[in-house]
Every structure is written in C-alpha cells, then in structure tokens.
Amino acid sequence: MSNSRLKNLLYDWHIYVVLVVFWIASSFASPFFRTIDTFSTILVSAVPIALVGFGQTFVVLSQGFDLSVGAVASMATAIASVSMHWGIGPAILLTLISAFFIGSLNGLGVSKLNIDSFIMTLGMMFFLTGVNFLIRPSPGGFIPSHYKKAVLYQVASFPLVPFLILLLSAVVGILVLQKRKFGREIYAVGGNPQSAKMSGINVDLVRIKVFIVSALSASLAGLFIAARIGSGNAEAGAPYLFDSFIVVFMGGTLVTGGVGSYRGTIASALIIASIGQILQFLGITIWYHFIVKGVLLAGVAGIQLFIVGRGRA
Amino acid sequence: MNGLRRFQIYSIQPIILIIALIVISTIAGLLTPGFLTFRHIKMVLYCNTMLGILALAQTLVILSGGIDLSIGATYWMTIMLGSLLMAKGDFTIPSIVCIITGAVIGIINGLGISRLKIPHVVMTLAMMIILTGALYVTTGGGGRGRAAPELIRLSTGKISGFPIITLMWILLTILFAIITKLTAFGWKMRALGSNLLACHCSGISIWRVQVLVYMISGTLAAFAGLLYLGWARTPYPTFQSGAGVGANIMLQSIAAVIIGGTLFSGGKGGVERTFLGVLVLSVLFSVLSMAGLGVEWQIMLNGIIILVIVGTYSRAMVSQ
Known about the structure:
The structure holds two protein chains of two kinds. By secondary structure, chain A is mostly helical. Chain A is 76% helix and 1% strand. Chain A has helices at 2-29, 36-61, 69-83, 88-111, 117-135, 145-151, 160-179, 181-191, 193-198, 203-229, 238-250, 262-281, 288-308; strands spanning 154-155, 158-159. Chain A has a two-stranded antiparallel ribbon. The longest helix of chain A is centred in the N-terminal third of the chain and has 28 residues, at 2-29. The radius of gyration of chain A is 19 Å and the shape is globular. Chain B has one domain: Orthogonal Bundle (ABC transporter involved in vitamin B12 uptake, BtuC), CATH 1.10.3470. Chain B has a two-stranded antiparallel sheet with strand order 1-2. In chain B, a hairpin with a 2-residue loop joins β1 and β2. Chain B is globular. Chains A and B meet through α5, α11 and α13 of A and α7, α13 and α15 of B.
C-alpha cells in the first residue's frame, strides 16, 4: 500500500526532481547560470513551449494528438503581423476567433466524423501551412513596439508579464484538470471512452472542447512569439510542434491518455528552455540541444516505465 | 447495413483513386498539351521516387500498428553520411555503411518499442530529435562531400528510356506487396496491426516482428537517401527547418500512406495502395505547378485531400 503511494508520488513529481537536479548541476557547471538574467531568459523562452504544451496536455490526456499546434502558432504570428495596424485588440480577437474555428473543425472531425486525431490534425497542419504562406509569404509585417513592451514587460530585468503568463497557465491548467468537471471528464474520456460514454459523459463534446483549448492556447503562444520576434513568420511555430509533444511526454502524460497532468508539462518546458542556456554557457555548440532533448525524452520515458512498472504504459 | 456500405467504399477506394488519376490527367492533358506525354509522366514518377520509397517503408510500419517519425531523419542522415564517406570517390563500402546505419537505427527503434515498451510515438520522436542533433553537430548544417560517380550513374541512369530508380521503386512495391500478402511474416505484421492481444495469445513472437518491421523501415529510408544523394550529387541542406531534420518528408510520407487508404490504426491496407497515393499526390502537384500556383497551394491541397479522403471512409476504421 505505502509502496504504491510512494510510486504515485514519485510518478507525479519525478520531473521536478529532474528539473532541480538539472538546475543544480548547471549552477555548479557554470557560474553564469546562477544569475537572474539567465533565469529571466529561461522564463521567457519557456512561455511559448508551456503554452503549446498546455493544449497538447489536454488533447493527449483525452487520447488524442494535435499536430496542428505549430501551424496554429505560426498562423497567429501571421494574422497578428497583418492586422495589428488596425489596433491590438481587434488583431488579438481575430487571431483567437480563427483559432477557435480551427479547433472546432479539428474536434468535429475527430468526434463526429471519427477521423483519427493524428490524421485530422495532420491534414489541418498541411492546410494551415499553405494558408500561412498565403497570408505572409515572407517574414515581416508590423508588430507595434508598445505591444512588444507590454508582453515582455520587465521589472528590474525580471520579466514580470511572461512570469505571470506562466503562473496563470499553471493555475488554470492544474485547477481545470484536477478540480473542474471538464477536467475530470477529460481523464474519464482518456482512460476509457466507452465507459465514459456509459456513465453519461458527452464524449464528443469533451473531444471538441479539448481541441478548441489546444488551438486557443497555441494561438496565444503564437501571439507571444510574435512579440518576441517582432514580426510575422509563416514558419515561426513549426519548432514548437515537436517541443509540445516532448514536454507532454516528459511530464509524465501517457501517450495512451488518461494519466498525466499539466504540472509535469510546465516543469518539462522549463527544462527544455534551460538546455539551450547551459549549453551556451559551457561553450558547446547549440546543435547539441537536440541530442540532449532526445536523450532526455527517451530517458525520462524509461524512468516513468521503471516507476509505474511495465504493465501500465 | 450502413457499416457494410462504408466497408465497400473502403474496399473500392483504390479504384476511385485510379479513376481520379485518369480524370485529373485527362483534364490536365486537354488544358496543357504535353502533360499526357510519356516523357512528362516519367518525370513526375522520377521526381517522386524517393518519397515513394519512404512512403512504402512507412506503410509497412503503419500496417504493423506503429508509426515511424524518424524516417525523414534517417533519410537525411544517410544523405549526409554518404556524401562525407564518398568524398574520395569510393562507392561500395560507403553505401554498405549507410544501409547498415539505417538498419541499426531501425533496430534500435524496434528494440526500444518492443523490449523496453516505450510507446512508438515517443521512441521514434526521440530518435528523430537525436538524429537531428547528430546531423547538425557533425555537419554544422551545411553539406560536405559529394556522391560517388557510380551512385550518380545509378540515380540518373535509364534502362531503355526509363529511370532505373523509378523501376526500383516499382519493383520494391511489387516485392513488398507479395511479402505483406503472401508470406508468414506479412501475415504476422498485419495481424499485429489489427489485434496485438490476439497475436500475443496465439504465440506470435511480437518483438521479432516489430524489430524486423522497423529495421526494414530504416533500411529503406537509408536506401532512399542514397538514391537522393546520387540524384542531387552534393547534399543541398534543405533540411534546415526548425521542426527537425526530415520532418517535412516524414509527414509527407504519412500523408501518402493515408491518401492511399491504409488504415492509420493498422492491419488493413497495403503498399500498392500507397503507390497510388503517391501517384495522386504527385500528379496533382504537377498540375498545380503547371497552373502556376506555388508550393503553398500544394501544401494546402495536400491537407484538403487528406481530410476529404479520410472523411469519406473514416467510419470503416471503427468497424474493428
């Protein structure tokens, strides 16, 4: 009994152990890592990863995949860069409405037409990539400087707004998944869709909502990226597609759905964001971050299997 | 009753694809003289040979109920490795090394999935990212070296006017169609895709089949990489996309499999369907280019075709 409780505790928090060990080791390895500036950079670069991971966690928990998150984030930068001269509010509204529309389409295809989510969102990804290049054939466009300042607002070189975004996403993600009806329904659908249906959960509606959440959070990530790079780019979101899966899987959410949390995702996002920093301080070429990421992903997946035993995954 | 009708739609899907091919080609041929010539069709096939072989490999993996996200990275790995090793002009040993590298990558994938029980998406995603890193670290993102003359002759050569590598693609498709349909290995592979538990209960050595499937996938990806190297002569680093090396061609290969009509959940479908899928995609892209529409329209159409085709027969997937 206590053994299984210990296992659960380990499973829930192991990624934080990895994060703390990684940070301590990095601090010993390089004195530059211990500075507030480094921490700020890590926070800022973790925001888009955590945001795409936010929606991806919801989708993977409900037994699905969303391959369109990268394209949705790119689309947000593209739309923002062509519409921000009408005002920031309308541009953000337009971005969110298009994301809502795309998320609903994904969800409808997956739930009502019974298309496998991998294929549905793969098709959507191709479609959106084409649309993105039509909206923004080459990188550029107009992002007002006060928007950039507001999103990246700093107090004494501490990025307050990015930090608040991370904090807010953590609070919302953890509260919704653990405490709200919608969150419990996601776990039920991901654990066993048939029994969820039998117990009166509207499985189709949960699936649709999950994809809407994913598209909305990906578009928010795109709006943040637009502020960081100061322009629109039809491919700016592409790297975040695979990052979103890495942080979700590393954070302990099972590919088969039903087990996991946003808590793990956000810790993995911080780890992924830290890798680039420490490599830079150690004078190792930045390309190694791919290898570190890949080994960490496979390694952490292995650790999880070791903790829970082979039967569960 | 309804389910039966849907199932029939699924079984006649290759015929629908063939009709679509004929209709598209005829319309394009009427609008643009020169489209329906042997020379142009040969060219379309030739340009899509590498994608065709990758999609063939992906079909085998998907049939067995898995997915290989590292296929594009393996492809680029062999291209870069081959060009580095062939810089002095050797052909035989570098080619063998490349093929073995591909096979070893596949075996590692297969062992991780079957023995360590890492989910296939996680395992092959990790492999893709590790290979991406390895490539950037060793080459710095630029191409070095060049293809051996023998390889160039192979990739650009023709047998009575028909490109050798396209013939190879067709022969490989026939070979693997026979293997998946008629051999015990093929039966086991498809059985794995349709019901893993039943396979386990009937005493099939699941891990051997899985390792073999991923090994074939890696080997074919390496083979396609070599052919591309001979075609391009020097590796032109087109892989510099932020998502990861070979991510684009990997996703394209999955798209071709799905458009061909192999079920994504595994068990049903075949390499001959994928061949048709690649043909439909390539003919449509050729039509779009002739109409003067850019690559963004092609990517968009790619997505629309996937959604339309899968939307029409997706309910057949539930029948399992």
